[in-house]
Amino acid sequence: MTENDLRDSLINASRRERTALALPADFDTLDWENLDFLGWRDAKLPAVGYVVGACEGGPVGIMLREVDSKARSRPQCSWCEDVLLPNDVVYFNARRAGKAGRNGNTVGTLACSHFECSANARRLPPLPYPGFDLESGRQRRIVGLRGNFASFVRKVRDDG
Ligand SMILES: [Zn+2]
Asked: How far is the CA of 51 from the centre of ligand 1 (A)?
């Protein structure tokens, strides 16, 4: 994926926002194999983050804005659903694509503040009982993360 592919993939950002976007610092050395989606915070715009996932018809990217919500303590990420809470989880708002977004319509989600979800899902879970199949537990979590992320993308994308 090139820098331009990445900018062009954003479905809910203006041309100006796409041009202004700061690429992830490690863009050239990203470990695509072990990413369910690419996510990073904008180095120049502290409240802004981006997630890009592989979808039918090519990559789809979404620009997110962290909302300062005095939420419940220690919320859980809606994407990786990690129960060990290894990192901060914050509330993000995404402008919806197309006309809905231009009318001010947004989709909110709780997510890991620096999009640590792929790493979280791959960490072996604690052994719930002797003989539990840890590897299949991990596979289920990866599948769950991909499903949760895809349904978020659908909500942002739907401009009906
Ligand atoms: Zn997460």
From this structure: 12
